[in-house]
Every structure is written in C-alpha cells, then in structure tokens.
Amino acid sequence: MEQLDCCAAPKAEAARVPCPGCGANGKPVGEETVQGLLIPEALAALGVQGRSFCRTASCPVLYFAADGSVAHKAQARVRVGMKETEGPRPLCYCFGHTYEDVAAEVAGGGACSIPTLITAEVRAGRCACERMNPAGNCCLGEVNRAVKEARVAVGLPLDGPSPRAPVVPDERRP
C-alpha cells in the first residue's frame, strides 16, 4: 500500500516524555502544529524544546515541553476531538469530518466512506495535517479507529462487509 506523505512517521522522532498532567507518554509535535493551534499567550508560555502532544482524553493538558511548561486544551484555537465528550467532535481537521459523521454512516449501512474520501484528498495534495490537526499528523489512524468503534457500537464485526451493505454483482460471471 502506498504511504501518503502526511501519514509517514517522522524520520527522527524524539524520545517520548510523560505528560505532567496524566503521566502518559506524549507524542512529539512540530513547531508548525503548536503555532497554528495555540492562542498566542499559550504559545509564548510553552517551552521550545521537546514539545509533545497528550492524547489522553481526560487530561486537560494539550501540549507540554521538556521544561515542564504546558498548554491546556482550553488554550487551543480549535476543539480537540479526542479530548471532547460532546459533539460535534472534530476528527478530520482538514476536511471537516467528525466522530458523529462516522457513527451516522456506519449506523446507516455498516460501511463508511470517510477514510476513502480523506485518502483521495490527501493524494491530491489538499491536506494540511501538520498545521490543522492538534496531534500534528494525519488523521487516518484515528478515523479508522472511529470506524471500528462505531461498528462495535452497532453490533457489527470490526472489519469486513456489513450485512446491510449492498451486494455488487460480479459482471464476470456468465
């Protein structure tokens, strides 16, 4: 499978450091991400070295730095979907898809077109994940997790066709 640029892992990723808010290991993020997503006051207060993103849903810390400084979820310019409990919860920041969009598609037929739509947009060079996604990377991993969670929520297997999915005839048969 072809690797999409915004989905590629950074070549030299810094060591993961525990979040001062919850103790979970953070994910290193780049300058472009924090500059685009934090309000100016929070950006000025956040240390420059070793910036990381905390993905723990219940933790109020969004970004933290090696010097112990933090920026909280409330200091972001956007809602951070994986840290929200009420909808709409952003999932794809470049193209406007939400967790609720995924759940509605799955509930309506078992399948979900959103990962395919995002992949097509990424291939066309229309994503800005590093600037728009608080995690600083491509959302497809999180989108695919959301699809699996939505399938489980409606009693479908994690992968495979839905019993409600339309059957496409094989035109090669006689």
Features:
6 strands, N-terminal domain of TfIIb, 174 residues, 4-stranded antiparallel sheet, 6 helices, alpha+beta, disordered C terminus, globular, two-stranded antiparallel sheet, 2 domains, Arc Repressor Mutant, subunit A
Tell me about this structure:
InterPro entries: BFD-like_2Fe2S-bd_dom_sf, Znf_CopZ. It comes from Myxococcus xanthus. There is one protein chain. The protein has 174 residues and is an alpha+beta fold. It folds into two domains: 17-75, N-terminal domain of TfIIb (Single Sheet); 81-153, Arc Repressor Mutant, subunit A (Orthogonal Bundle). Helices cover 30% and strands 9% of the residues. The chain has six helices and six strands. Helix 3 (99-109) packs across helix 6. It is globular and about 50 Å long. The relative contact order is 0.15. Mean pLDDT is 87; it is low at 162-174.
Note the topology:
Elements: E1 27-28, H1 31-37, H2 40-45, E2 52-53, E3 61-64, E4 70-72, E5 90-92, E6 97-98, H3 99-109, H4 114-123, H5 129-132, H6 140-153
Antiparallel strand pairs: 1-2, 2-3, 3-4, 5-6
